[in-house]
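User: Structure tokens for this complex, please. No commentary.
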Amino acid sequence: MTTELKQKEEVKPELTSAEHPATKYLREERLPHIWCSGCGLGSAVTSLTNAYEKLEIPIDDIGVVSGIGCSGRAAGYFETDSYHTTHGRAIPFATGLKLSNPEMNVTVFSGDGDLFAIGGNHFIHAARRNLDMTVICVNNYNFGMTGGQFGPTTPRGATATTSPYGNYENPFNLPDLAASAGAVYVARWTSVHARRIQQAMEDALSKKGFSFVEILSPCPTGYGRKNDLGEGIDELKSYQNRAVIKHESDPSEAEIERDPEAEIVVGNFVDIDRPTYCEVADDYLQSQ
Amino acid sequence: MSDEAMMTGKHFMNGDEACAEGALAAGCRFFAGYPITPQSEIAERMSKRMPEVGGRFIQMEDELSSIAAVLGGSWGGSRSMTATSGPGFSLMMENIGLGMMTETPCVIANIQRGSPSTGLPTAVGQGDMMQAQWGSHGDYGVIAYAPTSPQEMFDFTVKAFNKAEQYMMPVFVMADEKIGHMRERVEIDENKVEIYPRRKPEVDPDEFKPYEPDEDLVPHMASAGEGYRVHVTGLTHNQQGYPQLDVETQQEKVGRLVDKVEKNKDDIVEIETIGIEDAEVLIVSYGMAFRTAMGAYKRAREKGIKAGIVRLVTVWPFPDDRIKEFSKQVKGIVVPEINLGQMVREVERATAGNAEVKLVPHPGGGLHEPDQILESLEALL
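Assistant:
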């Protein structure tokens, strides 16, 4: 144990050195981050910085907006213009930011509870309008920061601090919801699919219109512990075993079961073209 | 209508329309709102006028998102506003708090109606006055204007935008259904409209601290895309804008949110006095109730009663010192409000027992009769 810790300390300076490709996108003085060991949020942030790097988006053109919760803290680590808003309101805040300053490349980075419980209405309306923004949802199936309560994506039967007898609510299938509401790009990957996530983020960021990427993440402290899923690494192994790539498949068939053996459909579900909110608005106004 | 942002000239328009025109004249280029009576004419006018002046109008899915979009719009670099009425004002309290905490300039017009709850959607009320100061959780200073005519809807909306930028905070225009729907002459003169510019950073990005205040206790603001890479959070934060969750930072931050209004009251507070010099009894009033109070004042003077009026242009911050000063010269103070007793509590507090204070309440849905106010004045003599 001691040796292991020592090793971690020894590698830490390298991880935060100027050479690390993510460094220029992150507020180094804010690190280390607050997330638990085994959480998937760190790798999701890395995938996003890699995607920014690959696309060569000027840092000063990037706006990262988060809501509240574990994922909500992500905005605070990006050395871009970054906005940590209120619970559920990241998308409407981002809407104002984008409409007021259309040159900005706006990324909303938040969690399942924030985006789909308290913020669900804003999500569907932003998708309906096809606002030009990328929404990244790190889905850990529960409200992690408040102590592991069930949320709108908790699988039926799963245990959480407010579902001690098992969750008896039906969860949202996020790719299906996003596609139904009008998103032009919809993908789902898990935290083990690091390169796939990055590619999906690149696609989403490049796409004009409302793009959505769901990342299924381990939450060993909240969801995993109560559902006997082991450590974070065990949850990753489980994703490796359960994930089945089905590009362009019907997202309505991408429901997630609690059963640790059940298949999880991942892939790129939607990639279509539709004029954005601003394009349509400006067309209408000019034609008058 | 006009491609000009400033519709210089004389117009016949209602208060809601004048509010929208005041916003445009003040440089507002982003409006996000949700339909609600009796503010609809503001949103309708904005939907027509914003594209004409190169701004952006969006009708959001609710008031929660309207005010959130307004904050985003402000950080995006545009002067931004929304308009609503009581039920929507209640929903906006969440992100009004975020706006106060993140020191985001913007304007919220509340065209009050009879309340609580759905109340009297198409009829006058002044029931949200305390909510304007205390509605969102926690401590922060508030600036709120109370117009009494369409002309003032224009003028005070301009003032509200300027104070929002000067003190970097959401500022309220607390009007009501009568003022919103009343149609009168509105004179717009571009030479009379002054614009307080955004407080841009004065140092390089490396040295810039988004929440480092100037001597007036107000910081500077870097909009999105200007290269300052600011972090903005509703968590208690240090001058760099980073979360710092301890008592010292809470004291510095929240203390300043209160002090930047409180210690600048001389600049912010505006009152109007009528017949105050020899007054033995006083009316303290604001908004639509003030117009009725003027009727009572005239009748009182006709009867030889030495009455005076203190009319609150800004209802928040409350002019404690001025009311205290006046209370020492009069026998009593009458406070007519279209609610069951809100600002009267402030008058009582400021008066500190120097004079008797009497509320003339109205539950909303209509106006006082001038004689009700007159009788209250007479009773104090």
